[in-house]
Amino acid sequence: MISDEAFNEAFKPLHIPSAYHATDSWRDKIAFALAEIEAGTADDVAIELLRLDPALDKTEVDRQTQSILKTLFDSGLIKGTKLHHGVLYNLSKILVPNSGSTHPGR
Q: Which long-range contacts link 58-65 to residues 24+ away (Cβ below 8 Å)?
């Protein structure tokens, strides 16, 4: 059994930075790039990351993006749809407000 502290660290919500910073962790960079494109494969996220920071090494970007997105998906911190050519990842952001009411019939 894991401690409460270890559990909280492992399953804390994914933080999405408000802006891209070259000094951020790979996880934060990849989360930001995914948020920018809203949904995409690991290749799509890598392309966005290289667009944001052309100085990054493409091989390292590809490796980090594949690994981190898979880890986030496997732990339930991001959503994804498995396709024949990979997984289409997304952050499950609500883009359209609910149209229902808390008072049905009014």
A: 64/26, 64/30, 65/30
